[in-house]
Design a protein that fits this description.
Strand content: 5-15%
Radius of gyration: 24 Å
Low-confidence stretches: none
Distance between the termini: 62 Å
Mean pLDDT: 94
Shape: globular
CATH architecture of the largest domain: 3-Layer(aba) Sandwich
Structural class: alpha/beta
Number of domains: 3
Largest sheet: 6 strands, parallel
CATH topology of the largest domain: Rossmann fold
Helix content: 40-55%
Number of helices: 25
CATH class of the largest domain: Alpha Beta
């Protein structure tokens, strides 16, 4: 191990993360001379020009650097203005983010087709009710048809999500009617993901589209192709194949590792890999093999987004979010870290090497230099999973590294979905969002906020997420969560019904009556589409306007870090949601392109962007927007509260 970490360059571990388990492992890594991303992040000094998107490297007449403090003083060699450069850069970020989610969705669709056609034998259709429900939502007749015939029609229709070169993506039909009409009027309805990403990359090439007002149209269409396309396909089909989640208790944090077990962590985004591992670790042969090496059993644990999906569906324990993926290896207890795609740090390879841990890549789209690659194929999953188990069990039997597992474990309720929220509010036969809308209208719930996304080593891990959400629920704002943010809040103990007293009087009353937490975990970052569907259902239920932009709702990614986040943010904005990013934003305040994103789009009838770094500031920006929407809806006066009696409680539950 390299002993190159100088004490004088270090920042207190408590300043790097509020997660006590990660603090403990960061201290251990420093003692061991191993540098983690949390320390690399504080040492890295971002380019001040690049961070504000004031540079262009789209051709080799440059790269051209403009002055963020005086953005209109000069132009690029080709004559490109600051607004053109920023729009191109933003567009290419959105294209990459949308491409990654659509690639994931296309892969999930391929697995679904394999099941329907009988080529894939190890996975099944678990939720036939949802299959029919999704099919009907896009106009497929299901009455009297065999479930596999419905599945075949659904496959063929959803294929258009990726392959269409004209027309509209199938799931566009699920958006509120007025929003669909607005997209058509403005020429931004997504056609097919491949053509949208291709056209955006073409239009941002040197010498092509050079008007930021025109570029934003294709940027928006490409982002919408993510949210109402590939991401929605991935979520809905994953539910159909692996089961639609419903609330379940699951343990979170590094204390879920067990010193006397073979510990296997699966980290990434593709649920089939994890589902395959879940089946394999329960094979009696491998359990006996592990015991023969002295282990008490095999402990399968998740991290990041595929971990969030398995936690929601099966209650599989979760070791931590993106910010802890390197730190967990420092325990010495991880026998195999198994990864597939997206949010996989290359630094894992070096950390795994230092702690004699297998880092195993499983996907053809994500190899890592220095890792062991074992290809996962849905048609024969055990070919991969069995090899992983053999290596992990062997590593347990020859462990040399000292083991230090943090004791922290927090339990939370995970697995909320659009379907379960509807059921929770109205029951099996009266499922509806009307009770939620009614409690927003009467003021018990002030509004709804989506707090989602990653952790970023530029700031103290988890802190912005936790303080932001505490402030929101204190002000009667119901919070929906996905991705790594959900794990941050689970570690803070906010994903249990017992957290209701931390909410304001109205929200806590609703939570106690329904028996739900004030913060609802909806799954992985791809599952942001559950929020889109829920928002559309709120519009359909009535009383809160005609489109998503009318709702008393806002969104935030407090510690965003990827191009996927920008694509997600833009599809929420163009669906009508005020969306705030912490950390910073790649545009220069006061420029025309920035003003378009942060003000102009809202004037066109959509949402808008916002940015701030302090969690309390972010919370009150979101609350101010929610209150503005309440005023516009004429429901702002209803928030004058009276003592809640038993008849009021019955009204909440009705």
């Amino acid at each position: 191990m390299a002993k190159d970490i100088k004490e004088k360059t270090l920042v207190s571990v408590k300043e790097r993360t509020m997660c006590e388990a990660t603090q403990q492992m960061l201290e251990k890594a420093r003692r061991d001379g191993v540098k983690l991303d949390l320390d690399r992040g504080i040492e890295m000094k971002p380019c001040p020009i690049g961070v504000e998107s004031a540079c262009c490297k789209n051709c080799y007449m440059g790269p051209c650097r403009l002055n963020p403090r005086d953005p209109y003083k000069k132009v690029g060699v080709c004559g490109a203005t600051m607004d053109t450069i920023a729009a191109r850069n933003f567009g290419r970020n959105v294209a990459a983010g949308s491409a990654s989610h659509n690639d994931h969705g296309r892969h999930i669709l391929g697995l679904f087709r394999g099941i329907i056609e009988g080529k894939v034998k190890d996975f099944n259709i678990e939720d036939t009710i949802k299959l029919e429900r999704v099919a009907k939502s896009i106009g497929i007749e299901v009455e009297g048809k065999d479930i596999y015939d419905v599945g075949k029609e659904l496959c063929d229709e959803l294929e258009k999500t990726f392959s269409n070169v004209e027309g509209e993506m199938p799931f566009v039909k699920r958006a509120p009617k007025s929003l669909q009409e607005q997209w058509r009027k403005d020429g931004i309805t997504p056609r097919g993901a491949m053509v949208e990403v291709m056209e955006l990359m073409s239009r941002t090439h040197i010498g092509c589209d050079q008007d930021y007002n025109n570029l934003i149209k294709q940027i928006s269409r490409t982002a919408l192709a993510d949210g109402w396309g590939g991401s929605m396909v991935a979520t809905e089909l994953s539910d159909i194949m692996f089961g639609t989640p419903s609330p379940t208790l699951a343990d979170v944090n590094m204390g879920v590792l067990k010193e006397d077990h073979v510990n296997i962590i699966v980290h990434g985004h593709e649920p089939a890999m994890f589902e395959g591992m879940l089946a394999a670790v329960n094979d009696a042969f491998f359990i006996d093999e592990a015991k023969a090496k002295g282990a008490a059993g095999i402990n399968l644990v998740g991290m990041c987004c595929s971990g969030a999906e398995m936690m929601s569906r099966h209650g599989v324990p979760h070791a931590g979010n993106f910010g802890s993926t390197e730190a967990v290896v420092v325990t010495g207890a991880v026998d195999a870290m198994v990864v597939d795609i997206q949010c996989i740090k290359q630094g894992l390879a070096e950390v795994a090497k230092c702690y004699d841990t297998y880092l195993i890549t499983t996907n053809s789209r994500c190899h890592i230099e220095g890792a062991t690659h074992i290809e996962f194929e849905e048609i024969d999953p055990r070919k991969c999973t069995d090899q992983i188990l053999i290596k992990a069990i062997a590593r347990f039997g020859s462990r040399k590294m000292p083991i230090e597992i943090p004791s922290q474990i927090q339990t939370g309720v995970h697995g909320f979905t659009h379907e379960y929220i509807e059921y929770m509010l109205g029951g099996t036969f009266r499922g509806s969002y009307s009770p939620l809308n009614d409690n927003i209208i009467n003021g018990r719930i002030r509004g709804v906020a989506g707090v989602v996304g990653c952790t970023n080593p530029k700031v103290k891990q988890d802190w912005v997420h936790v303080e932001l959400v505490k402030e929101l629920i204190k002000n009667d704002v119901l919070v929906l969560q996905t991705g790594c943010s959900q794990i941050s809040l689970a570690k803070a103990g906010l994903l249990v019904p017992e957290a209701a007293p931390l909410a304001g009087p109205g929200l806590s009353e609703v939570c106690e009556t329904v028996g739900m937490p004030p913060v609802l975990g909806l799954g992985s970052c791809v599952d942001n589409t559950r929020i889109l569907i829920a928002a559309s259902a709120m519009v359909k239920a009535g009383g809160l306007g005609n489109t998503i932009a009318d709702l008393p709702a806002a969104g935030c990614a407090p510690e965003w870090m990827s191009e996927k986040a920008l694509a997600i943010g833009q599809y929420f904005v163009m669906s009508g949601v005020y969306t705030i990013f912490g950390i910073g934003f790649p545009s220069i305040k006061g420029t025309k392109f920035h003003d378009l994103l942060f003000d102009g789009l809202e004037k066109q009838g959509y949402g808008k962007w916002g940015t701030a770094s302090d969690p309390i500031d972010i919370a009150h920006m979101m609350i101010a927007h929610i209150d503005k929407k309440r005023i516009e809806l004429g429901i702002d006066k209803v928030r004058e509260r009276t003592l809640v009696d038993m008849s009021d409680r019955r009204e909440i539950a009705s």
